[in-house]
Every structure is written in structure tokens, then in C-alpha cells.
Amino acid sequence: MPPPPPELTEGAIFEVLLRLPPDDPASLVHASLVCKPWRGILSDPGFPRRYREFHRSLPILGFLRNNIYPSASSWLKERTCSLAPIAMANSPPLLIPELHCPGGWALDSRHGRVLMDRESGDSHVLAVWDPVTGGRHVLETPGGKDDAFHHSVHSAMVLCSAANCDHCDCSRGPFLVVFVTSYSSKAHAWVYSSETGAWSVPAVLGIHGRAFVERKRRVIVGDEICCFLLGGGGAPGNRARFTGVLKYDLGRHCLSVIEAPEVYEDSVVLMSMDASSLGFAGVRGSTLYLWSRKVKPMEDIGWVQYCHTPISEVLEYTV
């Protein structure tokens, strides 16, 4: 009778568990029930970090979708946000407290958090929501008595504020909320800190009277700069063209405007590119144009066209 195989060392078990697929989190739960040694490895604080480092990118939990339904009184009464999970069928469900209720609106999602705007009667509240634990951090809106909501077009973003964080496991750490509005020919920016539990005084900048902050994708460039799209030429929802980028410098708490590289219609988006540069994509006709721009104060070299590609080639490449 052959001798039994040697027992796996703790290091070998660690390497095996490290290779469990990240898109099936239930496998980690099942592995923790095998025996106490395996449970000890999985519950060790160092395992989640090694697991994320090994798999490089975090799994996508799902897609947030904002919906607006017609209403005879006010469209705000008929808005709602829903989450479509994409985890495997045998994975544990996400915690979604009150997310599907009318009045909810997802403003931003980053670093394991979702920034929600919730309407309740004539008032609004902001909430930073953890979709994994279901925890919520509710904060009052800036500007006093909903001025930032009722008299403006607004946009916001949530980001981790922990020092030297790699953003692999920071959803329970300190965070900031940058809230930007545009009204009365001015842009305002407030910053909320979870550590102080208070909003800053607003940074204010004069802008074109018909310009307004877009609710499209916002980006972080480098460590201290947040960028928001500016639309103009008409009322919100009936705009004529993209006009520029509203830049907020988190370190200096000030606003400035970056002019548009060219005139584009509604099909524009911002992105973060390598070497702390701001990326911009716009569509004109059937061609996609990509631009890059340094946004650090001492390195502003203006917009540089990165490339332009027929949309048909882009679609062919992505299929």
C-alpha cells in the first residue's frame, strides 16, 4: 500500500485559495467552511489584499442605472435608481437597502462607494453607500436649505481620502465628496470630509451665463484635480454643444475653466490618461477624436490630438 501523500503546507494552501475566481465570491465562503485552518487563512487581514493584488483588477459587482419616468407633476417624483448584479447565480446577494425606492439617483461611484442623491418630499439628502456591506453615510446637502439642488444644475463625485492608499480595500476608510453646482453665472464647489463631518466653504468662479455643469462622467487626474464637463448654448437637456471642462483643484480649493479643444455636440466624454493627463473624446460625424492635455499648473501644454478614428473601425475592433 503506497504511503499517503504529504499534507499540504499552509503556504501551499494559501496559494491554492489565492487562485479561486474573483467573479465567484461564493467559492471563498465555501472554502472557509472546509476546516479551521482554511478559515484562518481566509479570515487573515492580509489575505484580501494579496487576493486583489494577485487578480489585479476588482470584479464588477453590477451596473447602476438611473431611470426617469414621465409624470404630470414633477419628473423628480418619478426617478429611481436600480442595480443590475452580474455576479454568478450561486454568489451571495448584494445588500441594496432602499435603493429601488422612487427618488433615488446615483451621482457617482468610485473606490468601492456609491454616492446617492435621495429625494424626500421637498428636501434632498446625499448618502455614501457601500454596495457590499449595505452601510450608508448620510450627509446634509451644501448651500443651505437645498439651494444647491433647487436653484442649480449640480454634479458630484466621491473619492477615497486615505493617505498612500492603493484603493484595493478602502471602502471603510475616510472619504471626500466634491459637490459642484452652476447657477446665476457662477460655479460653486464644496468638499465634504467624512473625518470632520462638515462641508468646506465654497470655492466660487464666474462662468458664462448660459453654461452649466453636466451630469456626465467626472474624472480624477493626478492626486488633486477633479474635472467636470460644462455644457452650454441652451437649457439643460436641450443643449447645443459642449463648451469646456470645469477643473477643481482639491489641494488649492479653487475652480478654473479649460476651454474645449474643438466644438463637439453631445457625444463627448472625459477620461484619465497616463502621466497625469486629462483625456477627452468627442464624436463629429462618423469620426471619433481623442485628445490629451496636461492639467498640472506648471505643465499646461494645451490640448494635443491623440488620434482620430472612424467609428466603424472602433466598432469592428470591439465586437
Structural summary, described in words:
InterPro entries: F-box-like_dom_sf, F-box_dom. Pfam families: F-box. This is F-box domain-containing protein. The strands form five sheets. Strands 7, 8, 9, 10 and 11 form a five-stranded antiparallel β-sheet that branches. Strands 12, 13, 14, 15 and 16 form a five-stranded antiparallel β-sheet that branches. This protein has six helices and 20 strands. The relative contact order is 0.07. Strand 13 and strand 14 form a beta hairpin. The protein is mainly beta. It folds into two domains: 10-55, no CATH class; 62-260, no CATH class. Residues 97-101 have low confidence and may be disordered. The chain has helices spanning 10-18, 26-32, 36-43, 46-55, 147-150, 311-318; strands spanning 62-68, 79-85, 104-110, 113-120, 123-129, 136-139, 153-160, 175-183, 186-193, 198-199, 203-206, 212-213, 219-221, 225-232, 241-249, 254-259, 268-273, 277-284, 287-294, 304-310.
